[in-house]
Automatic annotation (TrEMBL), chains A, B:
This is TetR family transcriptional regulator. Keywords: DNA-binding. It comes from Actinokineospora bangkokensis. One of its GO terms (molecular function) is DNA-binding transcription factor activity. Pfam families: TetR_C_24, TetR_N. It comes from the Bacteria.
Length: 200, 200
């Protein structure tokens, strides 16, 4: 089961958090289109009417899950990119944390990454902006490292896309039985990215 | 629209191919669970009864799509791994082709890669075996290159997983509007993988 306290420490009230967690499980099991607001409410131990107090529709629940997930991803990437050390040291932290997050939270990450097409147009625009900023932070860090002679990557946009892609795809294949553990996987992926960028 | 001639040149009769193509579009738009056999049959210009002549259920249609997709992926990887040149030359071809395939066929690749959980247990076993063989072919090629001093990758299973992951995730984010074109993306990803493996 998805743990709402862990995923959304800042979402209030608890009932909204419980509904979001129930929706993550329902969307993961059946997909967005086959899930009803009643399914979500029932799984959260509430009535459909109680759901509407917090969310006007199941699309609004999906948006809350997607937006908070993308905000978390952007904050993680920007914090790592602004950390101590040279561009290589910061990229190493960025990749390790982003990979570990997608392994540990693979269930919610799948909704965040794979249900974009189900977002309403205005909601999609908000999420697309968060995604562009996340990708820009990675590109800027590669460009900074290349300018400083720390990286020798041939093509910054493709390398940024590849790095994020590598981390995100962990959500697709990672299960609680997967090896290695999320922390070790993050370290190893950071090593691979260092090699990919030609870090000295 | 998904082009059945391009994807399944060997599937007979044409009606089965048309149904598989209609199912790819329906699953991509609504997800497996929210799609009915009637949706698939109607989109293929057939009656539900005509669908059952070819497939006993929508799960059987999904299995046909998933199995043929995984067989194609395995054949592509094994052919590249057995090609001419040293391990680096063959890995370069493998990554370029596998990436380009996922960019060009992103719609069917999404079904193949993301709907595994909807397969029936016996069908899943068939597909899981194809996936293991695909991953083993990539691991063997890395190990061969490492033994020959062509690669200096630190950890063969993680590198194999990362390489396949990078190629597969293209299906998630690639659209007909994406840059660069599928062939160029394949070449650039091959370069990144060469760096990742420390190819000389």
């Amino acid at each position: 089961m998805t743990d709402p306290q862990d995923l959304w420490p800042d979402v209030r009230p608890d009932a909204a958090k419980r509904l979001m967690a129930a929706a993550v499980d329902a969307f993961a099991d059946r997909g967005f289109h086959a899930t009803t607001t009643r399914d979500i409410a029932t799984a959260a131990g509430m009535s459909p009417a109680a759901l509407y107090v917090h969310f006007p529709s199941k699309a609004a629940v999906l948006f809350a899950i997607s937006r908070t997930g993308h905000e978390r991803a952007l904050a993680m990437v920007e914090t790592a990119a602004a950390g101590p050390g040279d561009a290589a040291a910061r990229m190493r932290v960025l990749v390790a944390r982003f990979t570990t997050w997608h392994a540990t939270r693979h269930r919610v990450a799948r909704i965040v990454q794979y249900e974009l097409h189900a977002l309403r147009p205005a909601d999609f625009d908000v999420v697309a902006d968060l995604r562009r900023r996340t990708e820009r932070a990675v590109r800027d860090l590669i460009a900074e490292g290349a300018a400083a002679g720390v990286f020798t990557a041939p093509d910054t946009p493709t390398a940024a896309r590849a790095i994020l892609s590598l981390c995100v795809d962990v959500a697709r294949w990672y299960t609680p039985e997967s090896k290695p553990d999320p922390g070790t996987l993050g370290e190893r992926y950071a090593e691979l990215v260092m090699a990919m960028l030609g870090a000295r």
